[in-house]
Design goal:
Shape: globular
Structural class: mainly alpha
Order of helices and strands: HHHHHHHHHHHHHHHHHHHH
Number of helices: 20
Strand content: under 5%
Length: 535
């Protein structure tokens, strides 16, 4: 495929994924809004977030991490070299192996939920009923592990077959289930002798099931049929398992860092866990849109090029992916820094979510935002090492980053309280992404580093002008439209974001930032339907 067409294909594939991811992430924000209004940042919300941390950790690793990094390249190789029948057999073998494994983990988790939760949230025992509620919620949500494993295999197959829209849209089902249960069932839970937050735990299970059901029809149309085949001696299955082991570690840095933050936050009083979660969810919106979606398009392309030894094409694909990531995430970082408070205020300061909650969450959002580029870069660079069958590099980097984050978190929390946890996580994310990109540059014999450096400098300059304009407009609008009514808040924020984006585009044109055109193609593709977009 000629280079311009290949670059357009990458942008379109990322755009399809981004369109669906935008829908899912917006529903995710709506979900957090509903939860904030229902529960604020109180004990029930703290208990839920800690209880959900274990299955959510596995979801992140499977859906956007080790599962994709290990399975997609292997499935793509089988599809490319041996045909669909061999690829379907491999997929069924992997699926059944995961079912056996996750069911065993769920059974063990149910038995040992009490000591496990007490281990990392023992401080909850100081609040009557809080620890017991966390243990109960953990047991209820554990089966989500099985569902997310199945959904991850389906997602991997569809991505390898050039379907990006439906797999990226599947988390929207999860978010929609949470919203419905929060609105309809939270009020009736007490009549059954259960806390209101139990409705949200049930929603997690319904959402997990929905993620499977929404992906099954397109798989069926491609010819996939489930078969109870399970051959542990299969060479391809062993290779995937061996890659997933270190792959889980190699891609776990972000999730483990968040887990460490949650653990330490349980000692920071009521609200700390919830504030950290709300802030991280807002920050993770651009990561999902402009990091995961681009990585989702890059990985199958890299895997196909790796299968036939096309190193120059791998180099170009990775370079283009990183360039698109910078164009979108650098301005997003600066925007979050200057608009953190009005964003949190508009999204969450309703119902039981107070002005004090807004201040705490906005402060954390600014700190988390500092690591945004690192998160997105790691999403692109780390899976590339697995596609190249060089997982050891990514594993080593993750070990170093995780260890550094633990040291930083323990040190900074002593001086800054829960805010130190967000700063430590951001620093670790930057280190993770930076080290992986540097090592990938060496492995591939260059990833157009000079072009990326020049592009980054120009993007940073344009983004700074954008941030200044957005801050000035928001400040000025405060005089024209004062007050806390939601329409006034929305109008002020919309004017600030709109003015900032106009400034960004104008500055990018003036500075001749080529990456803007590719970013526009990605955004333009968001209106496209799911199709066989070629990389």
């Amino acid at each position: 495929m000629p280079a311009p067409e290949r670059h357009l294909g990458l942008a379109r594939s990322a755009g399809l994924s981004g369109a669906a991811t935008l829908t899912s992430r917006l529903l995710g924000l709506a979900r957090e809004q509903v939860l904030a209004a229902r529960f604020g940042a109180g004990n029930e919300m703290d208990a839920f977030y800690v209880a959900f941390r274990i299955p959510n950790l596995v979801r992140d690793l499977f859906a956007e991490g080790a599962m994709s990094a290990a399975f997609v390249p292997a499935f793509t190789r089988h599809l490319t070299l041996h045909g669909r029948a061999a690829a379907w057999r491999l997929a069924n073998n992997v699926l059944n192996a995961l079912l056996v494994t996750t069911l065993a983990i769920v059974a063990l988790g149910f038995v040992f939920a009490a000591p496990l939760v007490t281990l990392y949230a023992g401080d909850y025992a100081g609040v009557p009923g809080k620890l017991e509620l966390t243990i109960l919620l953990t047991r209820v949500m554990l089966p989500f592990l099985v569902m997310v494993a199945v959904a991850a295999v389906a997602m991997g197959m569809l991505n390898a077959l050039h379907h990006y829209f439906v797999p990226a849209l599947s988390p929207a089902v999860f978010n929609a289930a949470t919203i419905v249960c929060a609105v309809a069932f939270v009020p009736v839970m007490p009549s059954f002798g259960l806390p209101g937050i139990m409705a949200i735990a049930i929603a997690v299970l319904l959402g997990g099931l929905g993620q499977i059901l929404v992906q099954w029809p397109p798989l069926g149309r491609e010819g996939f049929r489930y078969s109870p085949v399970f051959d542990p001696r299969d060479r391809a299955l062993r290779d995937i398992v061996l890659l997933m082991g270190p792959g889980t570690i190699g891609l776990a840095a972000t999730q483990v860092n968040i887990f460490v933050s949650t653990l330490l936050a349980t000692s920071q009083g009521t609200g700390a866990v919830s504030w950290l979660n709300y802030a991280f969810r807002v920050m993770y919106l651009p990561v999902g849109l402009f990091g995961v979606s681009i990585a989702t398009a890059v990985l199958p392309a890299v895997a196909r090029h790796a299968a036939v030894g096309e190193l120059p094409h791998i180099r170009t694909t990775v370079s283009r992916g990183l360039a698109m990531m910078l164009m979108m995430n650098v301005p997003a970082t600066l925007g979050l820094l200057v608009l953190a408070r009005p964003i949190v205020e508009l999204l969450f300061e309703h119902g039981r979510f107070t002005a004090a909650d807004t201040e705490a969450t906005a402060a954390l959002l600014r700190l988390y935002a500092l690591g945004l580029v690192g998160y997105a870069a790691a999403r692109i660079a780390s899976p590339t090492f697995y596609a190249l069958q060089q997982s050891r590099t990514a594993v080593t980097v993750s070990f170093v980053v995780i260890a550094g984050n633990v040291v930083l978190s323990v040190s900074l929390v002593a001086f800054m309280g829960f805010r130190g946890l967000a700063l430590a996580t951001a620093i670790a994310a930057l280190a993770h992404g930076g080290l992986l990109v540097l090592l990938l540059h060496r492995r591939l014999g260059g990833i157009e580093a000079k072009r990326l450096a020049i592009g980054f400098t120009k993007i940073l300059a344009a983004g700074t002008l954008m941030a200044a304009a957005a801050w000035g407009i928001e400040y000025a609008m405060g005089g024209f439209l004062p007050g806390q009514q939601i329409l006034r808040q929305g109008a002020r924020l919309a004017a600030a974001i709109g003015g900032g984006l106009v400034t960004l585009v104008a500055a990018a044109r003036l500075l001749r930032i080529k990456e803007l055109d590719e970013a526009v193609r990605v955004l333009g593709s968001w209106s496209a339907k799911d199709s066989g977009a070629a990389i």
